[in-house]
Amino acid sequence: MDLERKNLGLGARPALLLVDMIVGFTSARCPLGTDCPDVVQANSQLLERFRTLGLPVVFTTVVYHHEQQARVFRDRINHLNVLTPDSEWVQVDPRLQPQDDEPVIAKQWASSFFKTSLDTWLQTQGVDSLVVTGLTTSGCVRATVVDGLQHDYPVVVPREAVGDRNPEAHEANLFDMHAKYADVMSVQDVLQSLPTSQQAEQQA
User: Fold this and answer.
1) Cα separation of 152 and 156, whole Å?
2) Taking the model in full, what pTM does it have?
């Protein structure tokens, strides 16, 4: 039986967190990646609206600078070793090019919060809730969503803006996140839930 739960929605100043929308994950040319144009397009749609409203936007990437970083994680998944600072794989997908005021936070583990400056940055921006998108639903997205809740942010996941190599894992994790950790909504519903331009200006 499912737990009784309550939709929390978004606050007055949500941030858009694009998790690992990098070339290494959005391109099948990389052993870690898969072509996912629909997910990229959904992220582009959200990115455009957040920028229009002047709401905070932040990206993450995965970069390994030396052999000791995330050693066990990389021992399990050897292809992670291609994510070196000088590789194209760690760059944000050019279809979602960050603007100058949109940080790209490097991480080494699944969660965007673990051993990064993300929470500090969100606090400096006055963020009160998160829209989490990206890759993959069953991996870094889920880990980030759980940690978002554990940092006391209401979290919303737009279902079309996240993706996974395994469709069954994608659906199972959307179900599980919605049951416990986040509100899973359509992109259109997320767009309609965002504050108006006037409300966003008042919160800035």
Assistant:
1) 13
2) 0.95
